[in-house]
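User: Quick sanity check before I run a bigger batch. Here is a single chain. Can you write out its predicted 3D structure?
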Amino acid sequence: MNRFSLEGRRALVTGANTGIGQAIAEALASAGAHVTCSGRRSCDETVSRIVEAGGQAESLRLDFADPMAARDVFEGAHYGILVNNAGIIRRAESVDFTEADWDAVMDVNLKALFFTCQAFGKAVLAREGRGKIVNIASLLSFQGGIRVPSYTASKHGVAGLTKLLANEWAAQGINVNAIAPGYIETANTAALRADPERSKAILDRIPAGRWGQAQDIADSAVFLSAPASDYVHGAVLNVDGGWLAR
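Assistant: Done. Predicted structure follows.
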């Protein structure tokens, strides 16, 4: 038995239109899963890439500005894998940060994540099946960061909810774990990478000496979705080039 195979499994990946989510969707499909690629924007490019590589996928529009957007997605659909990757960020000094920016980030990054997990969990428990949830946390689940108060708070919350749900569901056949990326080459870090001084300061603190790639996160997601991780519960896996080990 290949304990890294996802053959016969159905997965939903949120925020799968680009970046980390797109890489995760492709990696799950490559491992054999049938992947639903969801996002507030079209995921047709991701679906095309999966199908062209011989995998199975379809697109689903979900906008987590409505935290309950996925409440009716899982019932009767036999999803066995959920990857909560959708997220947004707002940057401003804490003295200038607005209530609107606070609420927007918390709704998408934390409230929607919890209620999506809830809907998935209800469906899996109702059929007495097995399920794997992989939440995308952050380096800032452990550190404060600067100028991103709602993002930092939300990602601390993601780590906490991952552990809480693991405690509740481990004995009922649902694994809940998270991945905490460090600085990854995505659209969210484009401004940081374009600033030579800021980029150098970041790289100087990463023992591996490079920015992470979306594929680094995707490979970790495959592991946490596969039978190889059946005894892993409540872990927040740091994929940060050794940043937090310093």
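Residues 17 and 42 are 6 Å apart (CA to CA).

User: Great, the batch can go ahead then.
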